[in-house]
Design brief:
alpha/beta, 5 helices, 27% helix, 14% strand
Length: 181
C-alpha cells in the first residue's frame, strides 16, 4: 500500500459528474471516436465533456463572429453554451456546433443563414474534427474571479455593500488613518 498517497484524491475526471442522459450518450460516442480514430480532436472534446460548469464557460455570438474569418467555411466547435449578444448588430453566416444554444442565439444564427449543430451531428459530419475550429468561452470573466487573490496590491475587488463614503474608507485606504495600499 502506498501510505504517502493514501486517501489522496485524483482531480482528473474520467466521467462527467452530471446524470444527464444526453450528456452520457455524447460521452459514449466520443469515447468510441477517441479510441478508434487517431485524431486528438476527439480526445479534447471528450475531456471537455467531463468538465464542470465553471470550466465550460458560455461563449457569446460577438466572440464567435470574431473567431470566424469571412472566407473560410469551417465549423466552430464549442463544448458549452452559445449565448446571444445584443451588442452585435448583424450576425455573419456561421456554422456552429455546441452543447447547447440559447433560444435567441439559435434564432439569430439561423436567420443569418447559418447552422446550429449538436455535437452528435458534428461527429457524423467531421468524425476526426477536420475543417473545424475549437473555441472556448472566457473562463476568468466570472464575477467571483474578480475577488480572488491574497494580499494588497493585487487589484482584487472587495466584497463591499456599496462604493460610497461610509464603506471601507478608513485604515488601509488613506494615509491619515495608518497606511494606504
Amino acid at each position: 500500500i502506498d501510505l504517502d498517497r493514501h486517501h489522496v484524491r485524483n482531480g482528473h475526471r474520467k466521467a462527467p459528474k452530471s446524470d444527464n442522459v444526453y450528456l452520457k450518450l455524447l460521452v459514449k460516442l466520443y469515447r468510441f471516436l477517441a479510441r478508434r480514430t487517431e485524431a486528438p480532436f476527439n480526445r479534447v472534446i471528450l475531456r471537455r465533456l467531463f468538465m464542470s460548469r465553471i470550466n465550460r464557460p458560455p461563449l457569446s455570438l460577438s466572440r464567435l463572429a470574431r473567431f470566424n474569418a469571412p472566407t473560410d467555411d469551417k465549423t466552430l466547435v464549442c463544448v458549452g453554451t452559445i449565448t446571444d449578444d445584443i451588442r452585435l448588430l448583424n450576425v455573419p453566416k456561421l456554422t456552429v456546433a455546441a452543447l447547447r444554444f440559447t433560444a435567441t442565439a439559435r434564432k439569430r444564427i439561423e436567420k443569418a443563414g447559418g447552422e446550429c449543430l449538436t455535437l452528435d451531428q458534428l461527429a457524423l459530419r467531421a468524425p476526426t474534427g477536420s475543417n473545424t475550429i475549437l473555441v472556448r468561452g472566457p473562463k476568468n470573466s466570472r464575477e467571483a474571479v474578480k475577488h480572488f487573490g491574497f494580499g494588497p496590491h493585487k487589484g482584487k475587488k472587495p466584497y463591499v455593500e456599496s462604493k460610497g463614503r461610509k464603506f471601507e474608507r478608513a485604515r488601509g485606504r488613506r494615509r491619515s488613518r495608518g497606511f494606504k495600499v
